Each structure stands twice: as C-alpha cells, then as structure tokens.
Amino acid sequence: MNHDPSASFVLSSRGGEPPPLLERVDIEGRIDGLLFTSTVRQTWRHRGERPLEAIYSFPLSPQALLLEFASVRGDERLEGTIALRAQAERTYELALSRGDAPMLLEVGVNGLHTASLGNLLPGETLVTEVRFVQLVRFENGRLRLQVPTTIAPRYGQPGATGPAHHQLPVSAWSAEYPLSVGLTIAGALASARLECPTHPHRVTRGPGQARFELEAGARLDRDVVVLLHPAEPRPALLVTAADPIAEGARQVALAAFELPRRPSNRPLSLKLLIDCSDSMAGDSMDSARAALHGIADRLGPQDEVALMRFGEFPEVGLMPALCSPGTLHALRAEIDATTASLGGTDMQRGLHHTLAMRHRHEQADVLVITDGQVWTTGAISESARKSGQRIFAIGVGSAPAEGLLRELTSASGGACEFTTPGEDLQAASLRMIERMRDTPWHDLRVEWSHAPDWQPPVEATIFGGDTLVAMAVFDRPVPTLCAALRLVGSGQPIVPAASEAVDSEVLARLVADRRWPTQEPPEAAATSLRYRLLNTHTHSVLVHGREDRDRMKSEAAELVRVPQMLAAGWGGTGQVGSSGSAGVADIPLMVFRSVPPEPDEAVLRQWRSATRALSADAEERNALALTLPEGVWRDTFLRPLGEPLPEPLRDLMTGLAALGMAERQAWQLIAWWLMPDVPLSCKPVFLDMPDAAVAAKAEHLVQQAIAAFSEWTIANGRTQRLRRQVRS
Q1: Which of 8, 269, 486, 704 is the most buried (most CB within 10 A)?
Q2: 322-to-1, 47, 274, 300 alpha-carbon distances in Å
C-alpha cells in the first residue's frame, strides 16, 4: 500500500459557516411514451453581507438533453440563449463588469453541468430552472429511472479531457439541501407497478395516469431511483414528427425495439474486479459482496473464475481456475474477506492487471463492481476497447458515476447495471450472468419504408431484453412511414407499433443531438446553434439587467463555489436507508486519497505567463503563485519568482516545521488552502503523521495563517484580482 502522506486529504465540517446559498431543489417530471421530460428548479437565497459570484456544478443524466435554462428573479423570468462558448463567455463577463446579474450554464463530461450566477446581492432570491429530456429504455422488461442529485468525491486528476478547474465539484459535510420530486406517469405505463428503493414515497392513480411523489424530508444526498414494471410486455414503438426547426419540409423519426433473448449455456471465463477503495466502505461494499455471492451461486464446473481487488494498487484474490467445489469455496472466502481498505481508486491499473490475466476459454469477460468515482475515463475506455475482452459493470452506491461506467462497458461490447442500497443485488447479478452466457445480437439493421436522408449507426452489440433505439431524418414528409428491425439469424422482423404523439420540436432536437457529433466542427457548431443544443461547442447565457442604483463592479463580488451534499453512505459515513443516512453528523473528518501528480511543464508555462501579466510587485506575484494546483511545487515555481513572502505565510511555515512537516509537503498544503474558490468546508489538509492531535494543531495553524493572509490581500487591494486571475 502507498503510505505517502501527501496522497491523503481530509474533508471536515467546521462551525460558524455562512448560511447556504442553495436553499432547496424541486424536480417535476413526466414519463410519456418513449420520453422522460423534467424540470429541475434550484432556489437561491443570499443571506450574507457581501455580493457574490456563485459557481455550482450539478449532475444530470449523461443521456439527458437540455431543453431550456431559465432564471426567475422577482416578477422577471428570462430564458437562456444558446451561443458559441467564446461569445457566451464574453456576454457573461461584460455583464458582470457592468454590474448586471448574468448567468452562464456550461456542460462538462458525463452529465456534469456548471452554473455561474454573477453579482448576487445580499438579500436577493432567485430560481434557476433546467428543463431536460431523455429517452426511456426498458431492460429485461422493466424501466429503471435514475435521477442524479449529487456528485460524490472522485479520485485522481481530471486531466485534459475532464472538467475545467472551476467546474470541479466540491463536497461539504455542512451542506444540506431539501429535495422534492414529483413524477407523472402517463399513457400505457400509468398502470405499471412502481417502486422506489431510495426514498419514502407515495403513489396516487387517476384516469390514464399515475402520480409519484417523495415524502417530505428528502435531501440532495442520493440519486432518486424509480422502478416501473409494466402490467403487459412493451411493444416496439415508433414516433414521427415534422421538424419545425430545419429549413424545408423535413421529418424525423424514432423507433424503439426490445430485443428477444438468445439463451445459451456457453462456459464463462469470468474475471471479477472489485473496487476496494475508501469510498466503497459501508453500504457500497456490502452491496458488492452481496452481488459477488449471487454470482458465485451461478457458476458451474465448466466455468472459470478469478478475483482481483483494486484501490491504490491491484491485489490478486484468486487466480483463474475452473469452478470446482474447492475453487468456489475459496472464492466465497475471498468474497467475505473483501473490504474497502485499499486507499485510492486506481481503476486503470486494476483493469490493466485483470485484462492481463491468462484465461482458458476463447472469450473472457470482466465484471467490475464499483461506484466509479474516478476522473480519468478516456484511458480506461481505450484499454477496454483494445483488450478484446468484454467489460461488464455493476455500479453501486447512492450516487454512482453512471457516465463513466456506460462509456467503459459500451467501448468493449459489454453492459452495465446500477444498484442502490435497498435494491435486489442478487437479481442484478443474475441478469449480468445471463447476459454473459447469452448470444448477443450483432449486425442489426433497421429498414425504413422510405430511404432516410441521415440515420446514426445502429449499436454494434446489444443483449436480449435490452432496448435498441433507432433514429432517422427524411428530407420530405412521409405520411405512411414505418420501420422494421431485421435480426440477422432470426426469422420474422420486429415491426414497431405507432406510439402517442410527441412534441415535434423535442423530437427534432433529440435527433439533432445524435447528429452533431458525426459532423465536422463548423457544421456541428451550426447544428448546435440552430437546434439550441448545449454541448462542447456552446453555453447557455442570460442577463438580468439592473437599475443604476443596484449596479456594482465585478471586483466587489466575492467568488464562491457552492458545495455538493456528500453522497449518503460515501466512504462508510453511516448506513443508507430509505429515510436517510445515519451517523454522518457524528463523523468529524474522513481521509480520502488522491495521487499528487508530478509538475507539468504546460501548467508551469501557463502560470508563468499569467504572472507576467501582473505588475512587477514581488509580493503580488508570490501570492498568485501560492494558488497553484496540487503538484506544482515550491522548488519548481516559487523560487524563481523571488522573495520576500508575505509574513503570515512565513510564520505558518515556521509553525508547520515545528510540528515535523516537510517543507515540500507544507507548501502543497498551503497551495490547496489558498485556492480562492474552494469553500473552507472542503479544504484538504495534508498529513505526514497519523497523530490526530498533531493533525488538529496543523489545521489550526493553517486556519489562523489563512485568515491573516486574507487580511493582507484585502489591505493591499489584491483579493479580487487574484481570484479573477485564477478563475481565468
């Protein structure tokens, strides 16, 4: 195990913090036919004394399409405009400098969204609205709707393909946000049996619809999961509409096919890869062990099995062996001995070692059981793609990283499921084993009655019981459009029935959202603007104008990052039940491991360029240098900038040295604590000794020094300039 103390930090809750900006979140949704549409309303109330610029990162489903971003302030409701990123950022910054109240919505990776709320005045209340739509997909005869609410802390560094620095979510013990959820289920699904394993709830039924609502007391600390079991099998469905946005008379179509199973009894070569990092402690690890025992019960003598654990490093539990009674006995013993005790979440290394294990059968499958709380995704997915082995995954916990696991499994031809505490883990493991044994469908072909002008490629591999979605664009109206799914190796094609009418604009935007990634950048940007798509090319921006008497200069606004609620049960912080997580308030601090990277030349050049743009004042340059990200060390960057350092920081270095802390580690600690847009409740404190009393003294020293340093920056007129420079 890696005992490097610089690889750990603690999240702690401190008293005396200002009231939260985010007051509550209300979600109202509707499931109708193939679509789930929903509006997330975030209520903000500024009870502080200084104007603020607030940044809040929040999750939506990675499969969701943003339909509208709006803001309500008093009697004024404004809808956001989709603009190219650079243009939207200029609009936001210009309004910020004028003293107006702008808002900017950005999309990150895997469903991460970031809202910037500029120039919030003391006493001000406003509501932001995010309306989105996503396709409904049935799996094995049931619909599992997962509404994400919070982002659990993640391991590692985001890297070049991850979110920007200001988009990184932070978590706080002290954060607590009430949540209400109401869903209307219409049409054929109104009679379905409803379950919600995550929250106490109530269901009322009326003519042609059912109403689902959470009981009072819900919080934004776990995903909301709703399971629908239709009274009758779902037929294949087809919806069509005229495209009201495109130039000319175009028609769009969407078809959904639930594929039949193709059972087989082929032997498995199964490699079990279990996440044993700190974040899996408690309910997540209990869920993992339950799933593993369910899998062990379904292995026979013709199968081969291996078990690997991973955290900061991989650990072999069982080398590949045929499933004799002795092997299965050893497997169950290893399952019982599996705990969340391996530190960080180096999934890439664990997967690399697992894929390298030799196996007897021609086809090997890897089943990963994890909460998926890592930032690095591209390299992991690429490893899976090149391996030739299928990756399956069961995501566990109250807020699993859905986007990462779907990306990982689809890249290799596998599949994934998600289970929250309270769901049937045995049933999930049974469905996974059935998928591995079954023969998946390949070379599927959708035949339309008229030749489409464009259609996306059909999924290369899909398992029986899962839903295939096909889309198409036609350059003219087709009144009698129909479709058929040809199953290679099967008899009759699947012909969908016509579904209920849908909003034509929503359907057109859904199809366009599948189309723009296939286009060249200029054309993709044009499509994004025409269909108002929030993606890597665009932002959504709006500006509430202010009267002259209410205007303020942007330098006066304090930049703050609004923290997430810590995901219920994360890292063993209490047991997760449908009524809430117990014991969180009784835990003062928790260690979460992160690997500090080596200094990166590109980062150094970027920061050196930024400091050259400042005045020649040595103290100002040093103050900016101390806000460097983790890993850009004093001996590679601060020394060339010159001395002297501000007196509060010199005193702090002396105090930390007296506690036995190495200089390099002390500078890393200081750099993190000086990051201006990270709330105090989420500041990491680096420890190089396990003594809790010494750690507490170090934390006290840091808090005192940072307070003194803040006074120094204010007295010298540097605070807002430093924060704006870091954010840019």
Answers
A1: 269
A2: 30, 64, 20, 9
Distance CA 37, CA 327 (A): 49
Task: Write out the two tokens for 675.
Answer: 């990051």
Question: What pLDDT score does 427 carry?
Answer: 86
Give me the torsion for CA of 424, 428, 430, 435, rounded to 10°. Answer: 160
Largest Cα–Cα separation, the chain: 82
Mean pLDDT across the chain: 78
As a whole number, mean pLDDT of residues 301-320 equals 91
The SS3 assignment for 394 reads strand
Asked if the model's pLDDT at residue 6 lies above 80, the reply is no
Q: Are 419 and 287 in contact (CB under 8 A)?
A: yes
The alpha-helical segments, DSSP class H, found in 198-346 are: 283-296, 325-336
Amino acid letter for position 355 = L
Burial class (CB in 10 A: 0-12, 13-18, 19+), 727: middle
Angle 457-67-171 from CA coordinates, rounded to 5°: 100
SS3 label, residue 98:
helix
Give the pLDDT score at 78. Answer: 97
Q: Is the pLDDT of residue 32 over 50?
A: yes
Q: Token pair for residue 404?
A: 């990462």
Asked if 207 contacts 190 with a C-beta cutoff of 8 angstroms, the reply is no
How many CA within 13 A on the CB side of residue 292?
33
CA dihedral 144, 148, 153, 159 (to 10 degrees): 90
Strand partners, 106: 114
H-assigned helices in 211-365? 283-296, 325-336, 347-356
**CB 251, CB 478: distance < 8 Å:** yes
The token duo for 396 is: 């566990």
Neighbours of 234 (CB within 10 A): 17
Residues 565 and 175: beta-carbon distance below 8 Å: yes
Output the six-digit token pair for 462: 């899909």
What is residue 483's predicted lDDT score, i.e. its pLDDT? 82
Share of residues in the chain with pLDDT > 90 (%): 39
Q: Which residues of 197-208 are buried (b: 16+ CB within 10 A; e: fewer)?
A: ebbebeeeeeee
What is residue 323's predicted lDDT score, i.e. its pLDDT? 94
Residue 614 pLDDT greater than 60, yes or no: no
DSSP character at residue 517:
G
Please count the other Cβ atoms lying within 10 Å of the Cβ belonging to residue 75: 5
Nearest to 189 by CA among 354, 32, 406, 370: 32
Strand partners, 56: 115
CB 402 within 8 A of CB 410: no
Least Cα distance to 272 among 380, 391, 162 occurs for 391
Greater model confidence, 628 or 246: 246
Query: β-strand 65-73 against 76-79: which pairing, if any?
Result: antiparallel
Task: Kindly tell me the burial class for residue 427, based on how many C-beta atoms sit within 10 Å of its own C-beta (0-12, 13-18, 19 or more).
Answer: middle
Reference 433, options 330, 299, 549, 605; nearest CA is: 299
Of 43, 151, 604, give the one whose Cα is nearest residue 400.
151
Percent helix, strand, coil in the chain, to 5, is 30, 30, 40
pLDDT at 140: 84
Q: Which two tokens stand for residue 235?
A: 């037929």
Query: Is the pLDDT assigned to residue 645 strictly greater than 70?
Result: no
Inform me whether the pLDDT recorded for 4 exceeds 60.
no
Residue 26 has pLDDT above 70, yes or no: yes
Q: Which residue in the block uniquely carries the two structure tokens 């639930």? A: 258
Please tell me the number of Cα atoms within 13 Å of 351 on its side-chain side. 31
Q: Are 666 and 657 in contact (CB under 8 A)?
A: yes
